[in-house]
UniProtKB/TrEMBL annotation:
Keyword line: Membrane, Transmembrane, Transmembrane helix
Transmembrane regions listed in the UniProt entry: 20-38, 45-64, 70-90
Protein name as it appears in the record: SCO4225 family membrane protein
InterPro entries in the cross-refs: DUF7942
Organism (species): Streptomyces heliomycini
The keyword Membrane is annotated on this UniProt entry: yes
Keyword Methyltransferase part of the UniProt annotation: no
Top-rank taxon, per record: Bacteria
Pfam families (alphabetical): DUF7942
Length: 103
């Protein structure tokens, strides 16, 4: 019998395996790459990837200490959290319209 850690990892892998989640992650990586190439001193280009990863990245920005690497870490973790939510929603919607009538 697998432990609870294995079932969590299986759920994460299943959520990130959805096509919608992968498209979202690809878009976030492209936006972050564009922002890093275009950004200069005083540029607001890094706001675009931040908006793409809201609300998870904003919560992480408020919790983690301030710094450049913290900003990058919050964007990456925010994108992963949002991709997992997107993958979970895609999986639930794909399952169909047969609601649970056990109540």
């Amino acid at each position: 019998m697998p432990g609870p850690g294995l079932s969590v990892l299986r759920g994460v892998r299943r959520a990130l395996g959805a096509t919608a989640a992968r498209v979202y992650l690809t878009a976030c990586v492209l936006l972050l790459g564009w922002a890093l190439v275009v950004s200069s001193e005083g540029s607001m280009a890094v706001v675009v990837p931040l908006f793409a990863t809201l609300p998870a990245s904003l919560v992480l920005l408020l919790v983690l200490p301030e710094g450049d690497m913290t900003f990058l870490l919050s964007l990456v973790l925010g994108a992963l959290v949002n991709a997992m939510i997107i993958g979970w929603c895609a999986r639930v919607l794909r399952r169909g319209g047969s609601p649970d009538t056990a109540s």
